[in-house]
Amino acid sequence: MSDLDARPAVTEGAVLELYESRQVPLGGVRGMRVDRLLPHRSLPTVGGWCFLDRFGPQRTDMRVLPHPHTGLQTVTWPLRGEIRHRDSLGNDVLLRPGQLNLMTAGHGVSHSEFSVGESPLLDALQLWLALPADRAAVEAGFEQHTELPVYEDGGLRATVFAGGLGGTVSPATVYTPLVGADLALAAGTAASVPLRRDFEHGLLVLSGELEVAGTRLAAGPLLYLGTGRDEVPVSASAEARAVLLGGEPFPDDLVMWWNFVGRDHEEIAAARAEWEDGDRFGTVPGHGGERIPAPVLPAVRLRPRSRRPR
Question: Is residue 310 pLDDT above 70, yes or no?
Answer without folding.
Answer: no
